[in-house]
Amino acid sequence: MAFGLPSPLRPRFLCAVLSLLLAGSALEAQAFKIELNENSFLTLGILLQPQLQITNQGPDWGSAQFLARRTRLLFGGQYKKLGFLFVTDQLNWGKDNNWKPDFFIQDAVVFIEFNENLRLDAGLFIFPLVRYYAQSAGAIHTLDYFLPAIPFAENSHKVYRDMGVQFRGFFFDNILHLRAAISNGVTVNAVTGVNQASIPRFSAMLRYNILGSEKNYALSAIYFSETPLLSLGVGAEYQPNAYVYATPSNPQKKSDSLSLGADFFLEYPFWEKHAIVAQANFFHYARGPQNPDSGTGAVIELGWLINRLEPLISWGFFNSMAPAHAKDAWSIRPGLNWWIDKHRLNLKVEAGWTGHRLQWNTRKDFGFSAQLQVAL
Fold first, then answer.
1. How far apart are CA 89 and CA 65, in angstroms?
2. Where exactly are the structural domains of the chain?
3. Which of 50, 68, 106, 348 has its CA 20 to 30 A from that of 238?
């Protein structure tokens, strides 16, 4: 059996893959848009990601289990220039037999369109830095994000969303795309002493659209575009006194949060129903020399779309500046995507290795995952 599965896991594995394939062939994706009148509409949607995970964390195989990686409800609408987006999420429903994971509001955005190129968002939104985590989880390339490469303080965001206001604009015939936001970040904490002046987080992303443009609130890792898309981006995030961490000489050491990023994105269709899809994202975090969240990271993805099938490979790493390197991580993940109905219905399989030091000869965890996505 592939991947050296022990005999007790083989029937579960075969049944899981078979059930996912059957489900994929039976469902039809639809979009729900309710036109109220010529000036207004409502949208309703769901996102389901049932997943099979098989993990190995040492000489013996770990576990095989089913879970719902994401379960989302989406509600949106627009009246003339005023619109809103409301998204809920529930992560890892049923994982390790946990049937009560947090059900939370992920996005809650009200926006005003001044014209087709200028928009102001207010509420809970994806704060800008680079396009990698500005991508919707329902439109990413791989099964999931490589989270070690994008560390932020736990009390400074909710799944990389923050509360505030954001400006989005396109300039010079859509060549430049700017997102700039002011948001809460780390709020005043009397116990740790962080952010006593209550200064907000400032973040921005500037994109240079060489070919095509992307105007979505949440971006996609693949658009199935009939015309080439090519863009470069840079971004930054800053908040003073946002971190507190212990050092030998100062148990309440504080530091600013500075994040810098750069990225590249390409989707290039060629021949008939072929496309190369690639992106590279680079990060640098300066949050104090002994802070484990300080360091450098990257995520790189490369796929070749052949009709509805896409073999791909992704690689990511994070190299912490802290002496203990406790948050060092790397991952290499080859996979195969079957885009049955693009992002509305697809099946992804992925195998990969994850290490916790930046050398191949250290301990590595191996895993295999299969995920069906239904977005209605």
1. 21
2. 2-375
3. 106
